[in-house]
Amino acid sequence: MINELVALARAQAKAAARRAAVPAAFALVGGLFVLFAVGGLFAALFFWLEPALGSIAAALICAGVAIVLAIVALLRLTFKRRHARRPAAEGALPQFVSLLAKTAPSLTPRQLIVTAALLGVALALSGRGNKK
């Protein structure tokens, strides 16, 4: 039974890692493209301002714009709202119950009592989370 629980936990961990890795990779590539685009926009701003104002003034204006954009981006972190917790993923309890049903014939009476107690705790916890 322990081996089956470990296999179930490994399968769920691999699936969760896959679900997290693909969006993270796309976010990283998208972030790099945004970084290059912003760098290009600052270069264009500098070369547009440099003939009229000089190189020092154009550089200072570009730095000021960068600071203002950074402050605007960081304001979201200071006024961030806390979101309500998401409920636990559905489907873990039915998998646990089916696993217990498969292994029940090979268990001793003492193991059956412990298993029934664990199932009762799992049902109580899952019922408590749905009462909002």
Explain what you see.
With 132 residues, the chain is mainly alpha-helical. It folds into two domains: 2-78, no CATH class; 92-127. Helices cover 83% and strands 0% of the residues. The longest helix is centred in the N-terminal third of the chain and has 52 residues, at 2-53. The radius of gyration is 28 Å and the shape is elongated. 0% of the residues are buried. The model has no long low-confidence stretch (mean pLDDT 80).
Principal-axes geometry comes out as: elongated
The succession of helices and strands, N to C, reads HHHH
What is the mean predicted local confidence, pLDDT?
80
Q: Count helical runs.
A: 4
Present the secondary structure layout.
Layout lengths: L1 H52 L1 H24 L13 H12 L5 H21 L3
Helix pairs in contact: 1-2, 3-4
Keywords:
0% strand, 132 residues, elongated, mainly alpha
Please summarize what this structure is.
By secondary structure, the chain is mostly helical. Helix content is 83%, strand content 0%. It is built from 4 helices and no strands.
